[in-house]
Amino acid sequence: MTSSSNDARDQELAAQYEAYPYPERDPRDEEKRLLIGSPSHLREIDYWVFAAQRSPEVPLRALVAGCGTGDGAIMLATHLMRASRPGEVVCVDRSKHALSIAKARAEVRGLTNIRFIEGSLTEIDRLNLGEFDYIDCCGVLHHLPDPLETLRALTGLLKPDGGMGLMVYAPHGRTGVYMVQEALEILSPFSEKPSERLDVAKRVMQTLPATAWLRQNGNFGDHLTGGDAGLYDLLLNPRDRAYTITDFLQLLDDAGLETTCLLEPARYNPALFLPNPKLRSRIEKLSWQEQAAVAEALTGNMATHVVYVVKKGAKKDAPDYMDVNSVPIMREIPGDELAKQIRMDGTLVFSFGTLTVPIALPHQIRSILPHINGGNTIADLIRIMSGTGMSKGKFLRIWREAFPILESLNRTFVRASTHSN
């Protein structure tokens, strides 16, 4: 790969993350909480990358490419440890400061399945890392000199049946960011020290005009609650490109990858917020890529795109969710807790960032969800619900309607009964 050592903006980027590692984290907080997100949630990887077909007994070798201060790496390594799953999380970042924070966080948690390597993604092939089952590259590609070249290099590190979790910035939901970036680049050029540029940014934000688009945008909060690192990364980053979903899908295609999931899938379905029958009939005729583009353009609040991908031709089908031997699994929120969020009429008020949409579910799903524990099969659920007077036929009708919706909200998955939880 081409070295970025002669790229002035890349050099400024390196200086930024050494001075202000991102995101701003205190290792002592690991004693109090585990940050959960996407991509790289273990249950998401099992489902959206491996289609619930990979045995949990097989070691998972994962690469976090550009780990920063370690959010995704710490989450994945902790999930593996808690589930007694074999595997290794390899963290690569060129910021020594950021790596030191991520390492300290891992030490607080006593993680022994994680290791850290200082190195640049623009020269990833020189690190001789070997192949991986899973690669996380979250919030990195949009800062690189040549995102496609790096993504192709990462694709080359994937095992044939492996996959990636990726996140890039999206333009519409970041309205206002690039306007302020443009002003700050003039007021405080990249050639100045990071501390000087940060001081200028703080002074601008103190008196930012009320008419500034950034003041109207509530889709992110790094400039408000992210500390110095958050403010710098949002408004002073020397290279920050946003991708529409159409551009992002093209980037993935050019890298030899295909999408298994846009998170959350329902977020990219414009029919959810366009209830008009004539509009929905038009939506149904569009490809899923076109539907995603419409959803992004009309909602206007997507600040990022999160996807899971595999090599072209490697996408697998998930287990049949109607198979009585399959096992439903809740991603994170327990079934009884999700049931409490569903109204008596079956409506789940769901938030896609700052957009709240009422999602219609069969109201009887409220009584089924509490029994989804990662062990009960569909057959078990049928037996349990029969004790409440719900016939097998009625259960199957409810489940057939409810599961695709819950799956599209990234709340409920399914696996074959031969796999342990």
Automatic annotation (TrEMBL):
UniProt-listed Pfam families: Methyltransf_12
GO annotation, biological process: methylation
Cited PANTHER family: TRANS-ACONITATE 2-METHYLTRANSFERASE, TRANS-ACONITATE 2-METHYLTRANSFERASE-RELATED
Region annotated Disordered, chain positions: 1-29
Origin superkingdom: Bacteria
GO molecular function: methyltransferase activity
UniProt keyword annotations, A-Z: Methyltransferase, Transferase
Residues annotated as domain Methyltransferase type: 64-162
Organism: Swingsia samuiensis
Name listed for the protein in its UniProt record: Class I SAM-dependent methyltransferase
Gene3D superfamilies per the UniProt record, alphabetical: Vaccinia Virus protein VP39 (3.40.50.150)
Record-linked CDD domains: AdoMet_MTases
InterPro entries from the UniProt entry: Methyltransf_12, SAM-dependent_MTases_sf
